[in-house]
Write a structure and sequence with these properties.
135 residues, single chain, globular, mainly beta, 3-stranded antiparallel β-sheet
């Protein structure tokens, strides 16, 4: 994993997955960000019906995908930064194609899909924020 961050962007890059997110919250409105050869964009903007159980986060989550890695989906909380990762290591799931087909939101939030989530959903295991933006 290589840190490709600059003054404007948080950025991590590897052969497996990469992500770039803005340091300033106002820059989230652009919908995509680039640092070198890492281009990350918002694939889905989802608002939960209730606030998070454990506080600190927001009801709004951005689901991010990086060009060339359609099997990796980053979950970005507006207050906490990147707080989860959906990673289909055998590369059988294409999150971009799911969104284009209108199936991504149902796949992510329908409990009937729980067996398909096994081994693909990874939540942040530290209290430190990763890639959070500042006002």
């Amino acid at each position: 994993m290589r840190d490709c961050s600059n003054e404007a962007m948080h950025c991590l890059s590897s052969a497996t997955f990469s992500v770039a997110v803005p340091r300033r919250c106002a820059d989230l409105a652009a919908g995509y960000w680039e640092v070198g050869n890492v281009r990350t964009e918002i694939l889905l903007n989802h608002r939960d019906s209730a606030p998070p159980l454990h506080g600190g986060g927001t009801q709004t989550k951005l689901y991010l995908v990086t060009a060339g890695h359609p099997n990796v989906l980053f979950v970005y909380d507006l207050h906490l930064g990147i707080n989860a990762l959906w990673w289909d290591q055998p590369q059988t799931i294409n999150f971009v194609a799911m969104q284009r087909g209108g199936r991504l939101e149902d796949w992510l939030f329908n409990q009937a899909n729980r067996p398909a989530w096994q081994g693909r959903s990874f939540h942040r295991m530290t209290f430190g924020a990763v890639g959070e933006c500042r006002n």
